[in-house]
Design goal:
about 375 residues; Peptidoglycan synthesis regulatory factor (PBP3), Domain 2; 2 domains; Beta-lactamase; disordered N terminus; 5-stranded antiparallel sheet; alpha+beta; about 25% strand
């Protein structure tokens, strides 16, 4: 009996020992290496939904944006349409100034009919400088007045390293921007006026019996939705290209490439990296509760803090969802009364100690000032 018990005991501890040995797990596969964008002055890759910068190579260096200023021209045109100042079918009178515009053109002529929609195609597909000037005059009455609007809008959008001198991007000493500012402008354009993607990604268009092709070397390819090309000098090409794949959208900006082909190859490499090396993670659903605030002089005493919309981040593929940390920072001197939907603080989403997104969060319900009886009850209850 004793011998049998010892055998059983030995078997038990043998099994237990084997069970305690941790099962090895394969390591997380590394993210796709970031492409090395050599031979350009600056490059930026931006996720449209989250606003995260996925690649930044001299992205804050101020450079000549050349024809990429037409993204702001398009932004203000769509804004004017949204405000009912212009309609796509409306005819525009072509000035002599627009007719004689140098550089790329859609071949406008005074007296030749052209609509706002046709000008939009000429601006975004062909990069027509004559289209840019005609649009500026139609929106603001003059080119100089339109440039004032461009700079005002740039400040409102937070493009603090950008200054416009004209609506077409022809060389001007004081005209400047950065790859990061251009990427953010492209993101704002796509998010606020998504119809731009129905035009800017087209490979060609036809006006006045002339077929013209998109200068964007990636236009017409599957998933490409825009955005624009610029030529600062003979060997100084700028490209802003946007693409959508499986619900995600990216904007890649290259400034100062040696040729149009090089700019296109670099843009394609950046988009491939963004789509295949990163994936989106939902952190909070719409109206998700991120915190609860409690004050004894509030009625009710507790306030729920919620997200105004679903909040996601993009992480290198293979990263666990739990890697994202949330930090809520309430507004200073927050006091009742507080109304439902009122901003009450900021939510910072962080990964590996780096803030990926900062979003304003709101009060889920209204709270008022508590009466002296309510405050007394709150204090008593805290001691129970």
């Amino acid at each position: 009996m004793i011998r049998a018990a010892l055998v059983i005991s030995a078997l038990y501890f043998s099994v237990a020992a084997r069970a305690m040995v941790p099962v090895p797990t394969p390591p997380t596969p590394p993210p796709l290496p970031a492409p090395q964008i050599a031979g350009v002055k600056a490059a930026v890759l931006l996720d449209v939904h989250t606003g995260q910068v996925l690649l930044d190579q001299n992205g804050s260096t101020e450079l000549d944006p050349s024809g990429l200023v037409k993204l702001m021209t398009a932004y203000l045109l769509y804004q004017a349409e949204a405000q009912k100042l212009l309609t796509p079918a409306q005819r525009v009178e072509v000035s002599v100034q627009a007719w004689h515009a140098p550089g790329s053109r859609m071949f406008l002529q005074p007296g030749l009919p052209v609509t706002v929609a046709q000008l939009t195609h000429g601006l975004l597909i062909d990069g027509g400088n004559d289209a840019a000037i005609a649009i500026a005059q139609a929106v603001a009455g003059s080119e100089s007045g339109f440039v004032d609007l461009m700079n005002q809008e740039a400040q409102q959008l937070g493009l603090h390293h950008t200054h416009f001198v004209n609506p077409d991007g022809m060389p001007a000493p004081e005209e400047k921007s950065t790859a990061l500012d251009i990427a953010r402008l492209g993101r704002d354009l796509l998010r606020k006026y998504p119809q731009v993607a129905q035009v800017a990604g087209q490979a060609s268009y036809r006006y006045n019996k002339i077929t013209q092709f998109n200068y964007n070397p990636l236009a017409g390819q599957r998933g490409i939705t825009g955005l624009g090309v610029g030529l600062a000098s003979a060997h100084d090409w700028d490209l802003a290209v946007s693409a959508t794949k499986k619900g995600r959208s990216l904007v890649a900006v290259v400034l100062g490439a040696g040729s149009r082909a090089v700019a296109g190859a670099d843009g394609a490499a950046m988009l491939h990296y963004g789509f295949h090396g990163w994936q989106e993670h939902l952190v909070y659903p719409a109206n998700g509760v991120v915190a609860k605030l409690r004050q004894s002089d509030w009625s009710p005493e507790t306030l729920s803090v919620i997200t105004p919309a679903a909040l996601s981040v993009v992480l290198p593929k293979g990263s666990p969802d739990k890697a994202v940390q949330s930090h809520f920072v309430p507004m200073a001197h927050l006091a009742a009364p507080i109304h439902a939907g009122q901003p009450v603080g900021t939510l910072n989403l962080q990964w590996q100690g780096k803030t990926l997104r900062s979003e304003t969060v709101l009060a889920q319900e209204s709270v008022g000032k508590a009466s002296w009886m309510d405050r007394l009850w709150h204090h008593l209850r805290s001691w129970l």
